[in-house]
Structures are given as C-alpha cells and as structure tokens.
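Hey L., structure's done. Input below.
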Amino acid sequence: MAQNSTRHIEHLISLMAKLPGLGPRSARRVVLHLIRKRAVLLAPLAEALTKVSETARECLNCGNVGTGDICDICEDERRQNGELCVVEDVSDLWAMERAGVFKGRYHVLGGTLSALDAVGPDELRIPRLVDRIATENVREVILALNATIDGQTTAHYIADQLGDRVQLTSLAQGVPIGGELDYLDDGTITAAMNARKTF
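Output:
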C-alpha cells in the first residue's frame, strides 16, 4: 500500500499517541478499532471533538471547563455556602464532583508551584484566588491539593497569602503521600473530605 494512502491514518495515530496513557502501539490499536467501527464510533467521535473544540472554554471565575464563560457550578446559587475548595487541575475538580461530598464552589489553580519548571504564583490562579476571598463571602478554604512535594509547597504558599482572613482546612486521612486525587476512588475522597483538618 502506498504511503500516501495511509498518510491521514498515520497522522491520526501520531496525534492519539500524544494523549495521556496512550503510546504509539496503543494509539494504533485505538485508531484501527475506530476505523472498524466507523459508523458507531468514529463519526460520532469526530462530531463530538468538533463541537468541543468550538465550544469548550475555561470558566472565568474558577477555571473549570465548560461551554460558557461561567461554569454551571459557579452559577448555581445553592453552592454559595461560603466553602471554596482549591484544587490543582480540572481533573481533580471532576474527581471531587464524582465523589459527591462537596457542595460548595471550587478554584482551579492550573498546576502547582515548581521552581524546577519555573512555575510561580503568577503562572497559576493564585492572585485570582486571593481576589475571590476578598470579594466573595468565603468562610472556609479547603486545600484539596495532591499530597506531593509541589502540592504541599503550593498549599503552604496559599496559606501564607491568605493569612487569617478565612478558615483554612486540608484533606485528611485517605489521601496517601504522593497520591493524586484523580486516581482515588470515591470512598477515599469522601473519607478525606469528611475528616479534613485545620491547615
């Protein structure tokens, strides 16, 4: 088969291989499966990717991903209960929502402080977090950051920035050292949220 005839397929495989958890061999298997199931998988997937590409955006308030300038969580008045849960990434927010134990609002930092990677407070949404504390009726900030060195460094920095303006708590038991929220089961997240402690 001529190389030109598989050029688009090879390009799709190379793009899929860039996704987390997929290498070149896994990407090749996925693409071949999609081609075999073209009508029920490939066409709807292509349509969904196009829609998401055109409509997805970050919430201007918290950093969550949705289709509007303000996400559904921020617009939900029932979630204005004075609790703000700070997470590193959108995947962590979604993990917390899956567990269903938190009914307040979120703030997505977009990563953690890292001197090695030249990520400082201004590269994250820390200044926006400080602004939200000043302008919203926030009584408690829950630092739900991953139990890694960078996560804990970021938590301490945020605690220094917020001082005693709000009650600061962090997730407790259930989150192992070095663990990441996105990989924890709902029960572990529930236990950690219910046993949170003053930071």
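The mean pLDDT is 89. Strands lie at 57-58, 65-66, 83-87, 105-108, 140-143, 167-170, 197-198.

-- N.
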